[in-house]
Design goal:
single chain, 74% helix, 0% strand, extended, transmembrane helix
């Protein structure tokens, strides 16, 4: 294995991690701002509530509904910038629009 292959694998892992964090932030955003509906459904996770309250107190990420979404989009954009696209010969405009 060459050092370049190791670097590419490490970059791919970092990009996957950024995508995962972005998805987790969106899930946390839904849980935080839809808490009353989630509680009415009977899904109440006390440990997650404490973690999110502490996270909000220290980071202030949930003060506005847009902060979490903007941060998530930023992480997603960074993960997209770090990956190379491979051109697929079988992809047509019809498939793209579908």
């Amino acid at each position: 294995m060459s050092p370049q292959e190791d670097d590419l694998r490490a970059l791919a892992k970092i990009m996957d991690f950024l995508r995962a964090v972005s998805i987790i932030l969106v899930v946390m955003n839904v849980y935080w701002f839809c808490y009353e509906a989630i509680r009415l459904w009977g899904v109440n996770i006390g440990v997650v509530d404490k973690i999110l309250l502490n996270f909000d107190r220290t980071a202030g990420l949930f003060h506005s509904i847009l902060y979490t979404k903007l941060f998530s989009v930023l992480l997603l954009a960074l993960s997209c910038l770090g990956t190379k696209g491979v051109k697929g010969e079988k992809i047509t405009w019809g498939r793209i629009w579908t």
